[in-house]
Amino acid sequence: MTRRALRIAVLAGLLAPVLVGGCRTWKSRAGAPRDAVASAYGRTLRVTFVRRDDPGALDTLVLRDARVDGDSIVGSSGWTGDAAQRRRAIALADVREVASPRVHPMRTAALVVGPLALVASAVAAFVVWTPISY
């Protein structure tokens, strides 16, 4: 393994956690849906709600820039910059859960330590198995 290849391997191992963005989970927000959305104004929220066309079924939608507007939770869904991104509204009476994203510290630590351990193992193997020439 050349020095350049070793640098690339180390750089890739260090940048992998940054590129992945850490492990995110959804944390359910306590309280009434109106209060949960109001306390997280302008954030991305995952809203679980009862479907109007099938009252027994639940559906989930991720809303960006979520806010309460009258008797509904309003936000945009779809990919950022995508033509499919559009305004969505969900009646507060249909909402069963509101959750906000958070970084899971243990999973993120594992994501950082794992690649570093892999790079350290590769470097150690390179050092141990490379013959010394005089």
Automatic annotation (TrEMBL):
Residues passing through the membrane, by range: 109-129
* Keyword vocabulary terms for this entry: Membrane, Transmembrane, Transmembrane helix
Keyword Transmembrane (UniProt): yes
Which named protein is this? Answer: Lipoprotein
Its source organism is Roseisolibacter agri
